[in-house]
Amino acid sequence: MKSKRHVKILELIEKNNIETQEELSEHLEKEGFFVTQATVSRDIRELGLYKVVGREGRQKYAALREKKANLEEKYIRVFKEGCVSMDMAQNILVIKTVSGMAMAVAASLDAIGYSEIVGSIAGDDTIMCAVRSVEDTERVMEKLRRLLVG
Question: Using one digit for the tens of pLDDT, what is the confidence trace for 61-112?
């Protein structure tokens, strides 16, 4: 039921200028989906909907529909702009960043999704990544170096 409702919500906001949760609820009711305000709010959050300015200058709900490649380019750009240096201590990759950029760079690494990285912790200008093995750490460092020069 939830996935059908999500598909319908995306269809509705594509075809209509829906400005409020109440309007979305009304449209859903007309389509046979009886939902509470809390459910609509949760659906909006889960679908990653946001408000944009429509043609008439009024706000309406929209879905982020960027291609994965475009998003990956943004993550790579954040990494390139924020990374200052890298070093390793066994299976821990330590990345130094521009002051204040560690969280953004760590988030970009998470989004790129190297399977060798188990998790990362970011401070203000330093990220510590737990990597599966020493060999994997070397492999990840090489991948990241290629990103920096590419």
Answer: 888 654 455 567 888 888 999 999 999 999 999 999 999 999 989 988 988 8
Nearest to 18 by CA among 71, 61, 74: 61
> Which pTM value belongs to this model?
0.56
Helix 102-112 to helix 68-82 angle, to the nearest 10 degrees?
140
| Contact between residue 36 and residue 43 where contact means Cβ atoms under 8 Å apart | no
Q: Which amino acid, one-letter code, is at 112?
A: I
Helix axes 21-30, 2-15, angle to 10 degrees: 110
Which residues lie closer than 8 Å to 98 by C-beta, 6 or more apart? Answer: 81, 82, 84, 125
Rounded-to-10 torsion of CA 107, 110, 116, 117: 40
Pairing of strands 117-122, 126-131: antiparallel
